[in-house]
Amino acid sequence: MTTTLFRAPDVTDRMSRGAHRDDLLEPLSPREREVLALMAEGRSNHAIGQQLAVELKTVETHVSRVFTKLGLSEDRHENRRVLAVLRFLGRGS
């Protein structure tokens, strides 16, 4: 039995080709898209900060702006991080 490793960058590369996805992400700055791509890879805010060589507070600001620009308000019944990643992958509205 062969096991296939899941590689998030490969998935995000394939999903990034959709026009609908681009429309949803249009309001994001290039840095916010970069942060969202790292979120889609499963990275924590701390890991994103290390990858981008920025402070945790800066990452938190970018993540907050991603949520705001994607219209994801705080709701105790939903996980905004997951919803943002789904939109990045072209699977959310």
Can you put this structure into words, describing what you see?
The chain has about 90 residues and is mainly α. The chain has one domain (about 10-90): Winged helix-like DNA-binding domain superfamily/Winged helix DNA-binding domain (Arc Repressor Mutant, subunit A). It is about 60% helix and about 0% strand. It contains six helices and no strands. The protein has helices spanning about 10-15, 20-25, 30-40, 45-50, 55-70, 80-90. It is globular, with a radius of gyration of 14 Å. The termini are far apart. About 20% of the residues are buried. Residues about 1-10 have low confidence and may be disordered.
Distance between the termini: 37 Å
CATH architecture: Orthogonal Bundle
Shape by Cα distribution:
globular
- Protein structure class: mainly alpha
CATH topology: Arc Repressor Mutant, subunit A
At the first level of CATH, the class is: Mainly Alpha
Portion in strands: under 5%
Written as H for each helix and E for each strand, in order along the chain, the element string is: HHHHHH
Radius of gyration: 14 Å
Oligomer: single chain
Q: Overall mean pLDDT score?
A: 83
Spans of at least 5 consecutive residues whose pLDDT stays below 50 are 2-8
- The helix tally amounts to 6
> Please, how many domains?
1
- Please give the number of β-strands: 0
CATH superfamily grouping:
Winged helix-like DNA-binding domain superfamily/Winged helix DNA-binding domain
Percentage of residues assigned to helices: 55-70%
Largest sheet, if any?
none
